[in-house]
Every structure is written in structure tokens, then in C-alpha cells.
Amino acid sequence: MKDELKWLQYAKKLQAIAQAGLEYSKDKYDIERFEEIRDISIDIMHNYTDIEHAKIKELFASETGYQTPKIDVRAAVLKEDRILLIKEKIDGLWAMPGGWADVDCSLKENLIKEAMEEAGAEIIPQRILSLEDAKKHSSLPMPYGIYKIIVQCRLVKINFKKNIETSEVGFFSLDELPALSLGRTTKEHIKMALETNEKPFHEAIFD
């Protein structure tokens, strides 16, 4: 388990306070103060990470209302002792199919959609393997709270086609993993998925 850095905790807390204040305040002077608090949180994130200032501001400014965790869904598509991974165009690294959950889709629908779009894989989601608080399993700075849901899925068929998000797909065993996109998928995620594949009564892991 990784302890989140204090500066990151402060930046995220300031952002959450500012976001709620901007949503519910009516007084123009209060609004100005909350905008200043948000700017401070953006400066903290910018000075301690590699994320561009404009990108952080865009991310924070797009959030409204009371701040809640984002949900990252990942499909653990297994084939014997191997797992399906996709190569992300955005960073050239590999991860389980998935991404941010769409608000108009259920968990199953999100997984089915992501697997098809990113890997050309038709899948059947079967059971939740884990639901984790991402900051407890990664040392990477994250501007938001994130819940990551990993679901074991059965592969029906696969027919990868070129798309705007991914450039390759492949099945990999634990001892032959490519370079992973660690904000999306870690070796520990894959190890857990492969181990639980042999446990018909696996109890979901959650923080």
C-alpha cells in the first residue's frame, strides 16, 4: 500500500473545497475567493508533477458540483494463463482494456463497449475481482480520487481493428509482460487477475 504525498492531499482537498464553493456560492466575493483557492491547487499540482499547468486547469475547471471519485473500469480478459492487453496510443504503453466509466452505461455495458472499441474483443463480464482506491496502490500523483474496478471477463471472440485509441493487442503471461501504463494497469493487477482465475469462489477485493 502506498501513502499519498501530503502535498498531493492538500492540493486535492483545496480543489474539492473550491469546486463545491464555486457550485453553491452566490456572493461574487466568495466566488472570487474560491477561484483563488482553485488556482492555488492548480499551482501545487503543476509545480510537483509533470502535468502542464493548462492541462491541470482544464481538468479542474471542467469539474462542477460536489467532488466525488472518478470510476476507472478494467476488463481482465483471460485466456488460460495469459491476459489480454492493449497498447495505448497516448503513451505507447500497455494496459487492460477499459477507461473512465460513461455515465449512461452500466458497469457491464462500459466493459463490453471498451473491450470492443479498444481490442475488437467480444466479451462477457462475469465477476468483480477488485474495487480499489487507486491512490493506495500507486505512487503516481493523481489529481482526482479514483475508484478502479477490475472485472473478470470471458472472451467470446476477438478481431482487432485499427482505432484512435490503441495500436496493438496481445495476450501475455505474467513473466512476459510488456511495459505497462502504470496509471491504468500494474503487474499486481495482472497477477491478482491470473491467480483468481483458478478460484471459482473468489471474494472480491476492496479497500
TrEMBL record:
Residues 68-198 form the Nudix hydrolase domain. Pfam families: NUDIX, Nudix_N. The keyword Hydrolase applies. GO terms for molecular function: hydrolase activity. The keyword Oxidoreductase does not apply. This is NUDIX hydrolase. Keywords: Hydrolase. InterPro entries: NUDIX_hydrolase-like_dom_sf (IPR015797), NUDIX_hydrolase_dom (IPR000086), UDP-X_N (IPR059176).
